What does this fold into?
Amino acid sequence: MKKLLLVTLLSFSSLSLLSFAESSGTPDEDPVVKSLRDRFEKAKAPEESDLFNKIFKCKEISAMNEDFTQYDMMDLKFSKFDGFFVFDQKSNPMHGQYMVNNGTELIGAASTSNRGSKTPQYFSLRVDANGYLIGEYTGTQNSKCTLTPVVKALPSSQRVISYYICVQK
It folds into this structure.
């Protein structure tokens, strides 16, 4: 009887935790995502001295429900063109993408083909107190994306796909 009661209590508590995590998004599921989201929220827009003449090694961490994958990204290097920040490696798929400092973050846009239509995606970078670049990557194409971006300037249809952290090499 005691075992039955214990199993029943455990199943109710785990059900309530799961439903809370799914409705709230991945920071409740993954402490790494929670930490990166908190750090991104507190960080500031990078300045030229934070980016130029530096190469960054980056890791991307999924912010989708029930997805705990982490990816090593290609190194990032920046240049400047007419006031814009530009990803500067030809081997990087983001090569030539422009970003602008809006006073809160460095932000840029791209689009990907999704079932024949173009889907807007945004990438934002901030620098934390340790000089690490913390990024938020958003889009609209995946139903497992439930988090609203920290970046307030984005369209309401955007949801966080992943966070990333970049350290200077």
